[in-house]
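#struct-pred

JT: dropping the chains for the assembly here, can someone run the whole complex?
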Amino acid sequence: MRYELYYWPTIQGRGEFVRLPWRKRAPITSTWRGEEASAAFPR
Amino acid sequence: MMTLIEGRGIARLPFAPPFLKAGKVVIAQTANILLYLGTRLGLAPRDEAGRLWVHQLQLTITDLVVLIHDTHHPITGYLYYEEQRPAAKLATKYFWRHRLPKFLRYFERVLQKSGGPYLLGRKLTYVDLSLFQIVEGLRYAFPKKMKRFERKVPRIVALHDRVAKRPRIAAYLASPRRIPFSQWGIYRYFKELDA
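RK: done, full complex below.
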């Protein structure tokens, strides 16, 4: 399964509530199309 | 992203970010995304009652987030803060007098009933991370008020501290990947609102 999270890249916003749990473990492919690319979801 | 918001090529439109594209499925609304991801990330119970309980708590966080945002923009997001300052002062006054205590004391009671250290007991779930983020944001936006209030919710503060020490969370928070708080987000600092 390919996962892509879309969020505003310049503010924490509500996306932070999704980004935080992804910190804990990243067992699945996560990508972010845009300038933050690989930084958003390191495996 | 705008291609998806405008609905080109997808049947089920997201209203706004954040949204998750999982294969061909697009899932919007923060609590809904977390409901979907929870078990997949090992951050939610597998039984239905447990999943709904975490989701229920997350929806309560969603309500609180709206109230936090409305302290600085109580009339509309289409006006600058400076154009609604008197209303913001009034909204902030009642937020701290009634609404925030009601929400945080509720989470404090949930922690008391679960036995802690997390909202569901011994196992971390995604809503613990959201509650951590609420504390972080309130400390940014209302440092003085929050410092005074925290003694009333010791279990929430303990949860916050425990989450902050988790190795992967700590590494993330210390990294440039963590977007800093700013005057453009949900939580904004205005000295007169923290008086």
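JT: nice. Chain B touches chain A at residues 1, 4, 14, 17-23, 30, 33-34, 37-38, 40-43, 61, 65, 124, 126, 129-130, 132-133, 137, 166, 168-169, 171-172, 176-177, 179-182, 184-187 (CB under 8 Å). The two ends of chain B are 40 Å apart (CA to CA).
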